[in-house]
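Hi R.,

As promised, here are both runs. First protein below:
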Amino acid sequence: MAVTSAEFWDRVAPRYSKQPIADEESYARKLAATQVLMRPHMEVLEFGCGTGSTALEHAPHVAHMVATDVSAEMIGIGREKAELAGIHNLSFRQSGIEDFDAPPGSFDMVLTLNLLHLLPDRTAALAKVHRLLKPGGLFISSTVCLGDRMWFLRPLIPILQWIGKAPYVSFVKAEQIMREVTAAGFEAEQHWTHGRANSLFLIARKG
């Protein structure tokens, strides 16, 4: 039987937390491209933080970071990692992007890393990100674009979802993400794709 996103990620959290980084070179490039834009005064928000590995890398470069995920298990592991690392300016919160609430303009930077393709309503998600950012704030995303190269998996996904082996996933293309981000009121500053799944890394600014 199909499961909710939270149930799926709760179940896989322990295994997910132990997985090695699939593409270390691209991951390091993304970290560097993000951190060069960070400043000590910044308030940063990450949606879909998983077990917090990337948030832990970024938090020392800003004033405060909030990391959210729908999975309570992921959040629990993230908190343990932060405590062990002695990082105290990183707050974890269990929340989906649709449930998260904060005053408009609360953040200097919002990250959605490997998340947009997992959301049924990207339009609403991008509108939420836009509202939460300060004028001129930065939106940084990395999105798996299955529609570009792995379209052949499309018939398999609904079966895996029904038996609880896959979350919701869309077969979006990179050019589609670019259009949606622009339509949401952002101006792309840099972007590139990488990997077998044609992941799109994008840095955009609230216009």
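And here is the second one, sequence first, then its structure tokens:
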Amino acid sequence: MSSVETGLRLSKVALVINVLLASIKIAAGIFGNSYVLIADGIESTADIFSSVVVWGGLRVAVIPADENHPFGHGKAESVASVFVSLLLLGAALLIAVQSIHEILTPHRSPAWFTLPVLFGVIVIKETLFRLAFRAGSSLESTALKSDAWHHRSDALTSAAAFVGISIALVGGPGYQSADDWAALIACGIIAWNGVRLLRTALNEVMDAAVSPEVVAGVRELAADVDGVIAIEKCRIRKSGLHLALDIHVVVDGELSVRRGHDIAHQVKDQLLQSQLRINDVTVHIEPDTR
């Protein structure tokens, strides 16, 4: 639970920081004549919503099973990840459209003071990315990882803006739209991450199989139980922050029903007590026919 609380606390901190950064970037973009900075601020507003969604998804995901949700509320985390990924794609599309518009519209070069603003944003957002991604990896939370990539995408957009504005200021006349081209390039990176994260989140919602390494780990744990001859089937799906699985274990066909039942319980206990974040196990006993 401490890891979950860390993730929730991090989402709250990110929410406050994103509100401040969005305000600063949009204001600096308006007064500094830089659309890429305004676009960066708009992308940060998407981060605000994503932090709220991730926080809400995690809060719901840890609610225990009840009568109406016998398998728990873990899917809320995957649904939150889908929503965050869509926000990322929406932000990329919005910035791309406006960047093209600015490229086609003559305008003045950005102001110099937009550069230190962007440098500060890059440092803050990269730090948030590392903290959120570490927490997401610890929890195996797709939603937190998606939110982390929102921070990294913001840092990438800001880095592209920094380079573009620098070119515009150094190049002078004829280079005024360099920051807009930089924003357009950053959109491609943001969109790629959005598609990648959306594919992962949708796979979880649709109960796609987990990695072969996780399956192998589960099989090995179950096979170590005394009385288990072999593992016939093993189906595992991710449900929010945890794993749920059906496993078929082969035992001596001459064993009593009671002994087979005891072995099934031992297999279940072995898996639930492991470090694999398993919270639901269904064990099927199969007689050895060899």
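A quick note on the second one: The mean pLDDT is 82. Let me know what you think.

Best,
J.
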